[in-house]
Amino acid sequence: MTSPFEIFRSPVILRRFQSGGYTNGRWIDGAYTDTQITSSIQPMKGEEMQKLPEARRDSEGYKLFTSTLINTVTSVNPDLILVFGKTFEVIQVFPWQNAPAMGLVNHYKYLVLRLEGQ
Questions:
Q1: Which residues pair with 103 in a beta bridge?
Q2: Which residues of the chain have pLDDT under 70?
């Protein structure tokens, strides 16, 4: 059954990287795959921006709400999010795993910041 919240979600691209490795003594980055997911995209509030490290407070940032598990910057191979023609990195995740008896949809809240020069 499709979630009733899908009507609030927009398509975004999830870019997932494979592990890299050495070939003939040279490091070769892993390939990536792009997958379309759906997410509710919301602007970050001022108080959320203030909680970021000082050097990152001027970055363009959003909150994403999705049921897709995304690798953050604390992962070995962090994922990137492509939205609005720009590239963002996922800096924080908040799992919202609700009790099924309550009828609420399990999902994740992600904070994403635009990569410099992207």
A1: none
A2: 1-8, 55, 98-105, 118
